[in-house]
Amino acid sequence: MELLNLKIQYPSQFQNRINSLPPSPLYLTDNTNLVEIMELISGLFLSQRVVTHAGTKSPLTEIGRAFEHLFNIKLGDVHKKHESVIKRKPSKVTEFLDTLRKAIAEESKKKGYL
User: Fold this and answer.
1) By the 8 A CB rule, do 73 and 37 touch?
2) Which helix (H) or strand (E) element contains residue 8?
3) What is the reported pTM?
């Protein structure tokens, strides 16, 4: 009971680290689906291009949390969303990544690099 009373009297002292971080200035547009962001997260996780501060392979949940903070979103169960990306139809499994690749290629061509 004493701890509960202290939490009520001094709520800021009991906030976790995530609540104390300032919100990100970045937001996703309304036409961006969370499964599209999950493609990015899954790709980074599976490629093992993201590591922890200790240099070990970053867990899928940590990469997901970073994206949640970066874009002010809630992904929910990242493992379920990861599986939903992996088991999509072959033509849709990297649909968003293909869109990003196409946008970069078009910009490069427009600027005369391709």
Assistant:
1) yes
2) helix 2-9
3) 0.80
**Angle at which helices 60-71 and 78-86 cross, to 10°:** 100
The sign one gets for the Cα dihedral 85, 89, 90, 95 is negative
Q: Which of 11, 113, 10, 23 is nearest to 73 (CA)?
A: 23
User: C-alpha distances in angstroms, 75 versus 15, 49, 90, 109?
Assistant: 21, 21, 23, 35
Can you read off the two tokens belonging to residue 81? 């969303």
Residue 51's φ and ψ, nearest 5 degrees, are -125, 165
- In contact, 27 and 69? CB cutoff 8 Å: no
84 contact partners, CB below 8 Å, separation of at least 6: 35, 38
Q: For 111, how many CA atoms within 13 A lie in the half-sphere containing its CB?
A: 7
The 10s digit of each residue's pLDDT in 59-103 is 999 999 999 999 999 999 999 999 999 999 999 999 999 999 999
> Residue 98: phi, psi to the nearest 5?
-65, -40
